[in-house]
């Protein structure tokens, strides 16, 4: 998702149409995120919208404001921008931030640089700082649904779930019809005890991306809340098949489903797998239900 979005910025200095696809967490190999977290999903702007904007803004000789107080006024802003992007692609987020700092000294109102710097900060867990970048960009372009989406993710990480929901919900209504957007709204619905709405969003995410383990996880969570335990077990089984190394939470939740349908042996097997996967809460369930 993030890399998919950032791929557009390889237009700087050259025009490339091949993008690296950014998928969430288990697919993209960046930091692991709790299945009940809203973290993680930046999508790309629409190609037709960005192509003309980025190419025009960043390569037009008539539209390159340069700060006269810059330490190196001869350095092209596009070169700095690309250095920031290259660092991001290497997952060198600190360097990426520094490059975008330099770029934004020259062109402070560039929403793409603000977005990219925000993403780098987000990946470092600096959610408050990332939110400030998204806030600044949204003052310039208030209806940009990608910016809204990621500001919502930051707010969720900062435990501001009501505000997060407003941003994610508005982003989807404005056009962020991405699987991960629906997954994250489903998470917020589940956390606010609205399983029916969560189920609808998670199923829409699966319709868009059948390989989304996170969407299947949220389906399992919603079904469990609705006391449809067998459906919950099936959904968690799909989530596990799609992402066996999820940190043990899917095994734990499926174990709860097995307990609800009185399949203690299956439940204990899942709790043990959950503990092996690093989910420490499973230890308590093992002590309570699985010790003879």
TrEMBL record:
Keywords: Repeat, TPR repeat. The keyword Membrane does not apply. The keyword Repeat applies. InterPro entries: TPR-like_helical_dom_sf, TPR_rpt, Ycf3. Gene3D superfamilies: Tetratricopeptide repeat domain (1.25.40.10). TPR repeats lie at residues 111-144, 213-246. Pfam families: TPR_1. PANTHER family: TETRATRICOPEPTIDE REPEAT PROTEIN 6, UDP-N-ACETYLGLUCOSAMINE--PEPTIDE N-ACETYLGLUCOSAMINYLTRANSFERASE SPINDLY-RELATED. This is Tetratricopeptide repeat protein. It comes from Leptospira inadai serovar Lyme.
């Amino acid at each position: 998702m993030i890399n998919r979005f950032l791929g557009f910025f390889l237009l700087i200095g050259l025009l490339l149409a091949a993008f690296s696809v950014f998928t969430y967490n288990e697919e993209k190999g960046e930091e692991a995120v709790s299945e009940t977290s809203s973290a993680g999903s930046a999508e790309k702007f629409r190609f037709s919208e960005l192509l003309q904007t980025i190419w025009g803004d960043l390569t037009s000789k008539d539209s390159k404001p340069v700060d006269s107080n810059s330490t190196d006024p001869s350095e092209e802003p596009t070169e700095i921008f690309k250095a920031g992007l290259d660092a991001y692609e290497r997952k060198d987020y600190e360097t990426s931030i520094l490059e975008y700092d330099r770029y934004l000294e020259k062109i402070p109102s560039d929403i793409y640089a603000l977005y990219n710097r925000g993403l780098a900060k987000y990946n470092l867990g600096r959610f408050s700082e990332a939110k400030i970048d998204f806030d600044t960009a949204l003052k310039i372009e208030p209806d940009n649904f990608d910016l809204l989406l990621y500001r919502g993710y930051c707010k969720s990480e900062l435990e501001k779930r009501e505000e997060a929901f407003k941003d994610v919900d508005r982003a989807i209504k404005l056009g962020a019809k991405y699987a991960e957007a629906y997954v994250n709204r489903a998470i917020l619905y589940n956390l606010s005890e609205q399983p029916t709405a969560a189920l609808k969003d998670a199923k829409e995410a699966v319709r868009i991306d059948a390989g989304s383990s996170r969407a299947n996880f949220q389906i399992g969570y919603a079904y469990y809340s609705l006391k449809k335990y067998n459906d919950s077990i099936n959904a968690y089984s799909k989530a596990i098949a799609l992402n066996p190394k999820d940190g043990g939470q899917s095994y734990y939740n499926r174990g709860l489903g097995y307990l609800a349908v009185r399949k203690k042996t299956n439940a204990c097997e899942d709790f043990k797998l959950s503990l092996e996967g690093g989910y420490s809460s499973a230890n308590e369930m093992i002590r309570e239900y699985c010790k003879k």
